[in-house]
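Q: Could you fold this chain for me?
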Amino acid sequence: MKDEKRLLHDFSEGIEQAVSRVHELFYIELYYYALNIVHDKYEAENIVNEAFLQTWKQGKTFQSLHNLKLYLKKATENHAFNSLDRMKNEAVHRSNYEVFVETEIDPRPQIELKQIVLAQVYRQIEELPDQCRIVFKLAFLEGLSNEEIAHRLDISVKTVMNQKRIARDKLKKKLPPGLFTSAMVLCAQIAALQMLCERRPI
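A: Sure. Below is the predicted structure, expressed as structure tokens.
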């Protein structure tokens, strides 16, 4: 009980070890909760990270870990349904964008369309602030977890989550409407391919 109160106090104060510990305790459950709503694993990860960041920044005091989990779950739910609304709007924009692309450059093969999208995305990634760019690449191109990135860069998990959020926000503003979601899907495919190659025996 004393350890729980200490953890809750340190979390409300934003102490890194406590934030990381709470993240470890609840992340998996909240991730699958969000995934059940949005059906997109990368969006679910972003949603949970946003919920943690929001809760941490508020500096609220919780009486028990159970209450903290319920609060995080509600925050995750709110972010998830907001994300669904945004994704629906992006789907409309993306459909319009794809029609535009096909009209302008048809009949290029689909692989060339992907290369064009990736080239545009890579240009915008390279224009991100240094730490944002590095964190984004490690997370979305190499598929590393928040903890792995924090360890590699010798920064806090909290900083990793914050930099990922900043990077996503900047890319959403710079990329054409609807293209951001397509870009994230392509990044996920690249990360999966890279991990598969790393695991394949020589």
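A (continued): The two ends are 51 Å apart (CA to CA).
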